[in-house]
Amino acid sequence: MFSSNLFAIATSLLLATLPSFSLAQTSDPCAIVAGKPIATFAEAKACLEYFPYNHTIATETIDIVRKITDDLYIFNEIAATPPKVEGLSIVPVNISKALDIIQKEPWKSDRAFQDAIALILDKVHDAHLVYSPHCYRQFIFWQPIQLNSLIRDGRQIVNVAYVKDDLWADAKKEWTDCEVTHIDDVNAMEMVVNYAVNNNGESKDVNTCLNNIMNSKDYFHGWDDGADDLGYHRFLPAQESHKYTLQCPKNGTKPEQADYDEPITVTIPWVAQIPTGFSDADTYWDSFCSVHTSALSKRGPLFEPTVQENHIGQAFDFSENSIGHTTRDYTEFLILDGEDSDVGLIDIQSFSVASEDKEAFVKNFTRGLQMFAEKNVKKIIFDFSGNGGGDACAGEFFINSFFSSTPDYYSDVKYSSLVDNMVQKAFDMKSTKWMDYKSNHTQDADWYTNPVTYKRGNTDVKFSQPVSLSCESWNSAFAGNNAFNTSRWNADDLLILSDGRCGSTCAIVVSRLRLIHNVPALGLGGIRGNRMQFASFPGGESERLSSFLMDLQSLDLLDDPKAPKPFPERADMGWTFREVYRPNLPDTKFGDEVNLLEYNNVAADCRMYYTDENASDPKKLLHEVAALVKSGQCPLVQNGGK
Ligand SMILES: *[C@@H]1O[C@H](CO)[C@@H](O)[C@H](O)[C@H]1NC(C)=O
Ligand SMILES: *[C@@H]1O[C@H](CO)[C@@H](O)[C@H](O)[C@H]1NC(C)=O
Ligand SMILES: *[C@@H]1O[C@H](CO)[C@@H](O)[C@H](O)[C@H]1NC(C)=O
Ligand SMILES: *[C@@H]1O[C@H](CO)[C@@H](O)[C@H](O)[C@H]1NC(C)=O
Ligand SMILES: *[C@@H]1O[C@H](CO)[C@@H](O)[C@H](O)[C@H]1NC(C)=O
Ligand SMILES: *[C@@H]1O[C@H](CO)[C@@H](O)[C@H](O)[C@H]1NC(C)=O
Ligand SMILES: *[C@@H]1O[C@H](CO)[C@@H](O)[C@H](O)[C@H]1NC(C)=O
């Protein structure tokens, strides 16, 4: 009796558990992709969408984002009712209202919710304003073909730059250099421009967004967040595949001969590269999503910045005649060869100079200039393409190396009672960056604690007094290294070269070089016939929640009721807190929103586009730029460029 009962229970257990056991296996889609190098779109999606929407997490997340944008994001109000600026694509975004809408939506998954937050901040087109859900940025999605845009046969076209044939067996190398006439049955140029406007948060200038989403593999250096390129996503793509119509040069002919095969249409899937470090949904969540908090581990993963800038590859390998080529790739001094051996190139990939590198950076910079002088360099190209900014004082150092006196630039910080407490504490405790700002008219914390009110859109908003940054530590490094006398080069011996992807500190540096010192600027790529900016997101300074929390912690203000909390899931957020005005403004214009650099179009003086001959040959491209600077073909254009 007893034993047969047990048997019955055992059988029913077995019957009950068997199906649900196999169900449990197939219902853990993360276990299916774990350990594989690549997976299909559907497999990757199933894992990313496995984690259910959690109302508690969503509400907490939204509260934090709202607090930061309301209190700390300097362009929050102007973004809701922005000015119309000719040549820029600025859509009004009322972030708070958008968050209300997101909060009411019944999201299918946590991923969908998290990506909605990221997307709404992207719409402001300020690359400093970002929400990065770490949990859903682990998979890398590739299109096996990568596109660029160039001028062929007098037309601007979308072109297959290269084929990534290590991801998808049906990819064919010979698609390289085929023109893409249509994507998903829409004219390819039109589709790509629409994508640049609507899906890329990089810049308010569509030319820059286009350069950012296209693959310029051979002219690719410096910084790229890579998250939202056309053929390379860090987030789940909107559809499983794309249809491309290709017009390919006949075998044995070059594209520029315009002798084509019949067009073909191919459907190309997204392929996911799978991260390591998990074996199923639980371990995925543990490794990438959950915040391991305890009172003691506050300084652990919680406060670590989770988003790293990508530094991929060195595009220019001129080997000889090169100085300062470092693994950190801040700056490189090169001299062109052949007829152009009197033209130097300073490739400035980043101003994010680590403090332990400052001295070597200054030394190398001076050495580079000396080398230019010894080799009789007459013209210098400053290549700022792909420079995502960094230390404002490194930028100041750069300008000071060429021009002896440059007026300070006007900037101010958004006022909030939380930061008021921070600034006061910073001066009491002699700690954090909040001590580093100086104002003409005030002392100590007064620059912040006596705010002024300006109109932004329809709203009155409080800001600090006008400030500039104190660069004393840089200036002393500069003085100690016998600054090189650069008076042999005048503004018209210099040229700013930029694909528009010169942001933050870089944008401020080039704007001042152009507007104060009259160094002409060449815009590279973009959409033909469109005026193009040579800089983007010139917000003066940005912050990340992870480092903001560290400042709060060192000022003993983590428990201030106004302080934002860390995100409930592993995520980080960045925002602009200092805004910059156009250089050379009279005092009276200060505070007026029409003078904000972020909402101005400072256009390049001349343009160059990629062609079949030079799109994949940076050396050739630079010789063409050199020819242009030597023949004076990029003169300053007053009141707007090309
Ligand atoms: C939602 O997340 C919170 C916080 O992590 C957790 O306590 C709660 O159990 C979750 N709710 C559901 C329904 O999973
Ligand atoms: C954003 O929209 C809300 C209504 O949802 C409104 O109260 C608020 O004033 C708007 N913000 C700005 C800066 O215009
Ligand atoms: C192109 O032509 C070459 C010989 O001229 C041949 O070897 C190659 O297989 C051809 N490629 C294709 C895709 O037909
Ligand atoms: C300076 O140049 C040297 C020699 O080229 C290089 O090894 C070093 O990394 C450079 N340092 C910096 C900070 O650029
Ligand atoms: C600070 O004072 C200097 C010299 O008096 C002046 O040129 C500059 O415009 C002032 N800056 C601000 C932000 O008021
Ligand atoms: C730099 O050199 C020029 C010309 O040789 C000279 O006039 C100028 O005074 C020098 N500047 C400095 C700061 O030494
Ligand atoms: C590429 O070459 C064409 C001529 O072949 C030239 O017109 C164009 O300006 C060049 N573009 C760049 C970026 O050098």
Automatic annotation (TrEMBL):
Signal sequence interval, chain numbering: 1-24
UniProt-recorded name of the protein: Tail specific protease domain-containing protein
Residue ranges that the Swiss-Prot or TrEMBL entry lists as coiled coil: none
Keywords carried by this UniProt record: Signal
Matches recorded under InterPro entries: ClpP/crotonase-like_dom_sf (IPR029045), S41A_metabolite_peptidase (IPR052766)
PANTHER family xref list: PEPTIDASE S41 FAMILY PROTEIN, RHODANESE DOMAIN-CONTAINING PROTEIN
